Structure formats: C-alpha cells, structure tokens
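Thread: PiggyBac transposable element-derived protein 4, structure

OP (GT): Posting the sequence first so everyone is looking at the same thing. Length is 201 residues per the record. Can we get the structure tokens written out before standup tomorrow? I want them in the notebook alongside the other entries.
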Amino acid sequence: MQIYTGVLDDLGGKGHAANVVLHPMRNYWNKGYSPYMDNYYNSVTLASQLLEKNTYCTGTLRAGRKETPEDASKAKLKPGESVHRNGGSVCVETMLYNSYILYEKYSKPKMSFLEYRESVVHAMVPEIKAKEKPGPSTEDPGFQHGPSKLEKGTGDRRLRKKCRWCSKRGVRKDTSFCCKSCPELPGLCLDPCFKEYHNNL
C-alpha cells in the first residue's frame, strides 16, 4: 500500500490527481472493482481511462474542469439535484446493476455483483466446444488399413487373438485376423468389427 504524501511524492506532478487513483488500482483492472472518488480526483478523462481497463467509477464532478460537458457544467441545479451523462457501455452497466438489485431482492442464491455479471455473460454467450478430429473411416478412399491373417504358429496352426472390438463391448471372441497398420496389431473380426473399430478411432 502506498500513501500519497503530496506534490513531492512519486505520484506528484502533472496529472497527479488521476495518478493517485490509477496507481493503487493497477492490480484490479478487469476484475469488477469500482473506485469511488470526490470531485478533486474525478474527471471525464480519468473515467475514460478507467473504462478502457473495464473498470467503472463513481464520484462527483467539478463543473469547472475543461473536459466536463458544457451543458453539464452550466446547468443550474437546486440542492439535491444532479446531472447525468453516460456512454453506451455505461448504460449497459447501469441496466445490469439495476437487474442485480432486483435479483438480490427476489432471487437466490446470493452472489456478488461480479459473480452476477459473469453468470449473465455465461447465459448470453453459447458454449463453444472444440471440434473433435474425426478418425479414419473405411468409407474414405484414402483409407489404407486392411485385414491381415495372423501368421501360423507351431503345428501349422494359425495364431489367434482376442477381437479388440468385441472385447470393448464385453464379448470374448477370438479371431485369426488383425490390422497390421494399427499400433499393437489389434485382433479384429472381419465383419462387422474391422469396419466399426476403425470408424471409432
């Protein structure tokens, strides 16, 4: 935490009023925090700088500041009256906060304004799932896998393997065919296991 000690401070000099606000807020951009300021620090320029970092602010505004809109600075106000000006994104934020007030009053579960904003965004933006890369298909003309007979073992008997696709479905079945293009040379029945196994890679 850094305490502002005046013009001789590191934050002093030109634009020091804005720096006093921006410096302690630097670790809180884009997190839903909103500083509250009196009219010594607050300005249209500072509010714009904060808005660029997705950070909103609240505060009174001095009428005599150069960037203050003329119609606002010259408005004749009675005690208790105020003038409001906002940009499009601020209008959205105001509507969102008003809806949050109603939610807090009538709905559950309770949540912070930041959590509420995130829930609204998730509800409005559809979930995007990454497309799965399709495995090789026996319907593809470029498909190079084909059944091969297992070699003969001792006694001129052909070796047999458990069918990988049958096993996956909980069935115990031996076969004398395999796919030599696949890792581990899986045993596969000719029909329909060979085709179904490769279509589900």
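GT: Both are above now. Quick notes for whoever picks this up: The helical segments are 16-25, 44-52, 70-73, 88-106, 113-124, 164-168, 193-199. The mean pLDDT is 76.
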